[in-house]
User: Fold this.
Amino acid sequence: MAMRVVDLVIDAAGNAAVDLVDAGGGANGILEIWSGSPPGSVTGAPAGTLLAEVDYQNPAFSGMGAGTPRRATALGVPIATTGLDNGTIGFVRIVDTGQDDAGGLWDDDDVGTSGTRVVFNTLTVSTGVDFSLDSHLFTVAPTT
Assistant:
């Protein structure tokens, strides 16, 4: 039998996860934008190229909202950034404010220009060219 969890537990777990983005000694969490595929684990070294970084505001995400799945939304979007290298976005990695987590807090290969958890205005990044993170959802679905 699958474990069943009440919404209160889902909300607490989700809120704790997004609160970690704001943890650490720095001013804000960062969304790293990478080419290629995510590594086998969140703490694994990416094989792709770091294309850009987005500085989240602090706090980075809203609290978990109602519904299934539960969602926390990145605050302050759209957020503009500038390409550090050339390539196509393959996945993103979230690191805390101190970037001291030996990898990322979580990564996500569900990126696109619409209909995905992480939405950019383009997936093509060029050195010195501005683009934007248009939305980012952290989702947690209950198991019933």
Remarks:
- The chain has a mean pLDDT of 87.
- Residues 7-140 form one domain.
